[in-house]
Specification:
This protein is an alpha/beta fold and 326 residues long. Helix content is 33%, strand content 23%. Strands 1-2-3-4-5-6-7 form a seven-stranded mixed β-sheet. Strands 8-9-10-11-12 form a five-stranded mixed β-sheet, with no helix packed on it. A two-stranded antiparallel ribbon has the order 13-14. Helix 8 packs across helix 10 and helix 9 crosses helix 10.
């Protein structure tokens, strides 16, 4: 391969390809898995010219004709994972696999009008003039997001035969998104984890409008679940491949346990809205609308789990939802 930094074989017939992103994190990992004369692509990157060029270059380096890729499997619908699924299906004529909840969200992305000001106001976020609000995803991402309509809908414990004795076991891991799926390559014991088990950071887990009611509870349960798998190598979407998925899952569970305790401490003194807790716990800049939005939703996920655990109470004052420790 001409550029080992962009594509390398990490196991027999499993190639990691680094694709550039125009934002942080600056790289997303996608994976090519060989089975006989065909290949399966796990995630697609973002639909930008540098990313598509990098992928085509990697295929040329490896010696893969696009038509040899017969499956595109998305771990979830986010733009850096599924954004090029449409163009890549046209390029390869591959069949596309995605969980139905992710397919639904991919379709919804083009219909979201912008930030939900009523939802944010209800959780304590101050109003701003219209020109300072977050734009709709369709305008923000533009051509970067070109999702394909899936040919096959994934379900937990599905077995996808790849050929030559290899198959993917689908492991539904909701939390980061409602339909996020990991894929266990059998019999190799290689686990493709998308954003679920990142080696150095935790993914965003937020309580979104019209989303699951307890996303952090789902995320933590998914980490308990994934520890029951037998895997020898973990392939994340961001960061290096690593071993011992059980250890990393326990670390992430502990991380969110500590974060919940930090938030519980903030609401012991007086009732607070999610935004007020977020300002303190995440140390965000109040004038950065994206940070405010993301941190408030993630704080809300933690506060709602504390409420479900019986450690916090939820009340309402003047149309604003408040949380206080029991």
């Amino acid at each position: 391969m001409r550029d080992a930094a962009k594509a390398r074989e990490i196991a027999d017939g499993v190639v990691l390809v680094h694709l550039p992103l125009p934002m942080r994190p600056t790289i997303v990992n996608v994976y090519l898995v060989r089975a006989g004369d065909t290949w399966t692509l796990v995630d697609t990157g973002m639909n930008t010219e540098p990313s598509v060029a990098a992928f085509r270059g990697a295929l040329a380096d490896i010696g893969i004709e696009p038509r040899m890729i017969t499956r595109l499997v998305g771990t979830h619908h986010h733009v850096d994972h599924f954004g090029t699924s449409g163009p890549f299906r046209e390029l390869t004529h591959a069949e596309v696999y995605l969980h139905p909840l992710e397919a639904e969200r991919a379709t919804m992305m083009v219909h979201i009008a912008g930030e939900n000001t009523e939802f944010l106001r209800r959780h304590g976020v101050p109003d701003v003039p219209p020109e300072q609000r977050l734009p709709p995803p369709s305008r923000f991402f533009g051509t970067w997001y070109a999702p394909a309509e899936p040919d096959h809908l994934l379900a937990d414990e599905d077995d996808i035969p790849l050929g030559d004795g290899r198959s993917f076991e689908v492991v539904w891991t909701p939390g980061h998104t409602a339909g996020h799926c990991c894929l266990l390559l059998k019999p190799d014991g290689i686990l493709f984890v998308g954003d679920h088990l990142l080696p150095k950071i935790t993914p965003h887990v937020g309580l979104w409008p019209n989303g699951p009611e307890n996303p952090l509870g789902d995320f933590l349960a998914s980490h308990e679940k994934i520890q029951r798998l037998d895997a020898r190598l973990v392939c994340p979407a961001h960061g290096p491949v690593y071993e011992d998925h059980r250890r990393r899952a326990r670390q992430l569970i502990d991380f969110h346990r500590v974060r919940k305790l930090a938030m519980l401490d903030r609401i012991r003194r007086r009732p607070l809205a999610a935004y007020e807790v977020a300002l303190d716990v995440f140390a965000i800049a109040p004038d950065n609308r994206f940070q405010v939005f993301a941190a408030t939703l993630e704080t809300l996920a933690h506060l709602e789990l504390l409420r479900r655990e019986g450690r916090a109470l939820r009340t309402e004052r003047d149309g604003v939802v408040l949380y206080q420790a029991r």
